[in-house]
Amino acid sequence: MKNNWGVELNGQDQDREIWRKILKLPFDPYVEEVKDERGNYLALRSSAFDGLTTGSEVHGAARQLFATLNVVMSQNVDADPVSAGAVVEFVADGTPRRQHFLEAEPIVLRLRFGLAELTLKDGHGNVIPPPVRPTVAQEWMRAAALEPEIGNALRYLAGNPGWVELYKAYEAIKGLVNGGISKNEIERFKQTANVSNRHHPNDTWKPHKRPMQLWEGRALITGWISAAIADVLARNP
Fold this sequence. Notes:
Elements: E1 5-10, H1 13-22, E2 30-36, E3 39-45, H2 55-76, E4 83-89, E5 97-99, E6 120-121, E7 127-128, H3 136-146, H4 148-155, H5 163-173, H6 183-193, H7 214-235
Antiparallel strand pairs: 1-3, 1-4, 2-3, 4-5, 6-7
Helix pairs in contact: 2-3, 2-4, 3-4, 3-7, 4-5, 5-7
């Protein structure tokens, strides 16, 4: 990683710990533990910060990066949103410097299940180290870097997306591989999203005889994004 920047993780301890466990070196992005005179904290390092020269530029890039990562983490592990905190500048032979920018932190209270870890052992009871490879979350971020429309679509899935957000995600990925979703289902999705008080209500779109439920629309778009990610990664091993 040829840059001198990172961004502090703000959020609940459990979520920040999940990010630390899932986002590891030598793959991009990764979380690094940083030490200074006030104690230890976690910072996200990423190639997205390559070539940036000021803290404000890094903060701007981090907002989009965190928006994508929060959706990726919610889709793959049991993690609530983490927000971008202080921008961290890593200086040669010196203590990292933090630059603070105002950013609202997510507040979420719910039942948590934690992060399951699988430990493999050989016939003698010795722990077998897992292979060094990127996690699914890191692979999704690599796909989003290779195909920006994947990142655009993912950001529309933040929180509890409605028909407006789902249709915007569809517009982002409609030119990408969809994993075999039928034309009839795509038309059903579009017709449902564009009728009544949904995405673009007008007289052109008539109600479908079997409108989609919102959960069906979310599943269709999520499946489409997953297929697009798999295709991009297969073409860029």
